[in-house]
Amino acid sequence: MLDVRDVVTHYGKIVALRGVDLSVASGEIVTLIGANGAGKSTLMMTICGSPKATSGQVYFDGEEITGLPTHEIMRKSIAQSPEGRRIFPRMSVMENLIMGAETASNADVDGSLQRVFDLFPRLKERQNQRGGTLSGGEQQMLAIARALMSKPRLLLLDEPSLGLAPLIVKQIFDAIRDLNQGDGLTVFLVEQNAYHALKLAHRGYVMVNGKITMSGTGKELLARDDVKAAYLEGGAH
């Protein structure tokens, strides 16, 4: 479904991605792990068209999307929940969710609302509350729910557990699993919490300094001593 082929991305003269190859098949959860600053979020943003790849190609469903503007990419049944949540703080929860349906031509707003409220009952309770007054965990739920409102086939999640309490992290990862298993949603997950991400994912990639250095099933990567030493010490909770 998603193919990234030999992608190089620059920020000015700085090389952020160095020939990245990565794929996500329909129905999979694939995670990309790596240290802070490894280039994970840059890859996610490059897939979405900002920044644009300097060279290489990105394909979605066999169609090249590398040079397309971001708004056109987002109309192709792809949705992103970005790092830092980026909800609309002055809008209510409900208004944020309705904004998420704006990019979809086939949006079933009532059906999508019911689905996200089933996944995140807290949002239903808070639907008239301003987004900026929610807790960090509730804002993260809202960011994911807003992305789901467009009924995407591919969901891009950038650091969904960042800064959240373990109980909230579990709720969010349970929701991702439910979406994948129950709805058949394909998920590409960028995550610093390697333990949770690899337990959840069918396959994983490890990025170091803008390059993919390892790949395998989630179980294979969890079992590797070098992955444990670099990313899991103290993180298995």
From TrEMBL:
GO terms for biological process: L-amino acid transport. It comes from the Bacteria. Residues 2-234 form the ABC transporter domain. Keywords: Amino-acid transport, ATP-binding, Nucleotide-binding, Transport. SMART domains: AAA. PROSITE patterns: ABC_TRANSPORTER_1, ABC_TRANSPORTER_2. InterPro entries: AAA+_ATPase, ABC_branched_ATPase_LivF/BraG, ABC_transporter-like_ATP-bd, ABC_transporter-like_CS, BCAA_Transport_ATP-bd_LivF, P-loop_NTPase. One of its GO terms (molecular function) is branched-chain amino acid transmembrane transporter activity. Belongs to the ABC transporter superfamily. This is ABC transporter ATP-binding protein. The lineage of its organism: Bacteria, Pseudomonadati, Pseudomonadota, Alphaproteobacteria, Hyphomicrobiales.
